[in-house]
TrEMBL record:
It comes from the Bacteria. The lineage of its organism: Bacteria, Pseudomonadati, Pseudomonadota, Betaproteobacteria, Nitrosomonadales. Keywords: FAD, Flavoprotein, Metal-binding, Oxidoreductase, Zinc. This is D-2-hydroxyglutarate dehydrogenase. Belongs to the FAD-binding oxidoreductase/transferase type 4 family. Its cofactor is FAD.
């Protein structure tokens, strides 16, 4: 039976009045498409998909949902990896697809005001047209929306130099769970007038309200980016390489991936092996080579690392096309392992703890997944590791996930041992909710629950995500 049948007809009629009859979808295809993100753990069961075109329309929908006590799930590009945008319990999905405009640009402030449905790549291209740069970047940039990035405090491949999404948000317009419209911080860098409420909404995964607009700061464009891909004998060599380069060069990226990840990308047919030498691990680093002295420094550091046995082989890009090809070895991983239904862990610790942390996690994985392919990659330069267990062909999805969940406890106990995070950049959603106490103290979680009650007293905003109310 159609899920919309459970909604009062008067509610559907009022939704259609707010946004237009054609902008309320209740057919099964729409419910399945807009009620889910990239996770495969939960089946989507929304009641309706609504496409507002303005902050005021979002406000009207939220007030209506409060009146009927119907839950809401915000939906952006649906590229999330923690089921934060999955509507599994009859929620109304508010899609920000129509709210995709760049509203204004203040050149002197390097500040752009956008609607939340603007796609990340769209913002990057707009910044480039202004001679500027938006640096938060990741594989899903072509489809992820800025509202979702803000909701999860997205990170990506440039965090080592530019930081997370939080660093670039100078203001937000939000509709709270009460249905109030708040204009927070209004783009200011200096504003010492009490609580920075816009920061509460960054990383809140739509549990406090819906971000409808944002003021985003931009920066200068990097110039003459050089990319190095290095063959590395083991995890123990990765941190010395990082330290050696950082002592003399400002890196814009420092990524790693293992042999399994590289082979999957190469097998996909859209990449070329960077060199003949094979090894268990590979490092990709990037820096601005604007000056010949910087490039010379990089080569000297490379030679030093070779002498120390930390690097077995390597290649440096000689053109933008080659740089893009080398980046594809790293950025193509998520797409190429997707058919293997990977069980993902997105974990992080302080950089200081990375070597010992990896050794402990590697031991857990080797002991418990001896017959599974394990795909390691991530932003190791900022302490963020992506651990992906690939599903064997002879196991069903449910059987495979059940086996993987058994080991979650050991993985997250290791995260807790090093005071790390169970979710570095993907959010908590539903997939990590049961493990939140490994990163957050129970008293801290209780404060978060109380904050949610302030902004969302009826508990209608994306319920069941991050934590349960009781």
């Amino acid at each position: 039976m159609n899920a919309a049948a459970s909604l009062p007809s008067s509610l559907l009629e009022q939704l259609q009045t707010i946004v237009g009859e054609q902008r309320v979808k209740t057919d099964e295809d729409s419910l399945k498409s807009w009620g889910v993100d990239w996770t495969k753990h939960f089946e989507p069961r929304p009641s309706a998909i609504v496409f507002p075109g303005s902050t005021e329309e979002v406000q009207a929908i939220v007030k209506l949902a409060n009146q009927f006590n119907i839950a809401i799930t915000p939906s952006g590009g649906r590229t999330g990896l923690s089921a934060g945008a999955v509507a599994a319990n009859g929620e109304i999905v508010i899609s920000l697809d129509r709210m995709n405009k760049v509203l204004s640009f203040l050149h002197a402030d390097r500040l752009v005001r956008i609607q939340a449905g603007v796609v990340t790549e769209q913002l990057q291209q707009y910044a480039e047209q202004q001679g500027l740069y938006y640096p938060v970047d990741f594989a899903a940039a072509g489809s992820s929306q800025m509202g979702g990035n803000i909701g999860t405090n997205a990170g990506g491949i440039k965090v080592i130099h530019y930081g997370m999404t939080r660093e670039w948000v100078l203001g937000l317009t939000v509709v709270t769970g009460k249905g109030d419209i708040l204009h927070l911080n209004k783009g200011m860098i200096k504003n010492a007038t009490g609580y920075a409420l816009h920061q509460l909404f960054i990383g809140s995964e739509g549990t406090l309200g819906i971000v409808t607009e944002a003021e985003i700061k931009l920066t200068r464009q990097p110039q003459d980016l050089k990319v190095l891909v290095l063959s590395v004998p083991d995890f123990a060599a990765v941190m010395p390489i990082l330290h050696a380069f950082q002592q003399r060069i400002d890196l814009t990226a420092f990524e790693f991936f293992n042999h399994v990840a590289l082979e999957k990308v190469l097998a996909h047919g859209h990449a070329v092996r960077p060199f003949d030498t094979e090894s268990p691990l590979y490092v990709l680093l990037e820096f601005e080579g604007r000056f010949e002295a910087v490039v010379d420094d990089a080569m000297q550091i490379f030679e030093h690392c070779m002498e120390q046995g930390w690097i077995l082989d390597g290649v440096m890009s000689q053109s933008q096309a080659q740089a893009e090809a080398l980046w594809h070895l790293r950025e193509g991983i998520s797409e190429t392992i997707a058919p293997f239904t990977p069980y993902k862990n997105d974990i992080s610790v302080l950089i200081t703890h990375v070597p010992a942390f990896i050794a402990d996690i590697d031991a857990v994985v080797a002991a418990n997944y001896p017959d599974f392919e394990v795909c390691w990659f991530g932003h190791i330069g900022d302490g963020n590791l992506h651990l992906n267990i690939l599903k064997p062909a002879d196991l069903t999805k449910d059987e495979f996930f059940e086996k993987c969940k058994v080991v979650n406890q050991f993985v997250f106990e290791t995260v807790q041992k090093y005071n790390g995070s169970i979710s570095a950049e993907h959010g908590v959603g539903m997939t990590k909710k049961d493990y939140l106490t490994y990163t957050r103290d129970p008293i801290e979680i209780e404060y978060m629950r109380e904050l949610k009650k302030v902004f969302d007293p009826n508990g209608i905003m994306n319920p069941g995500k991050i934590f349960d109310l009781s």
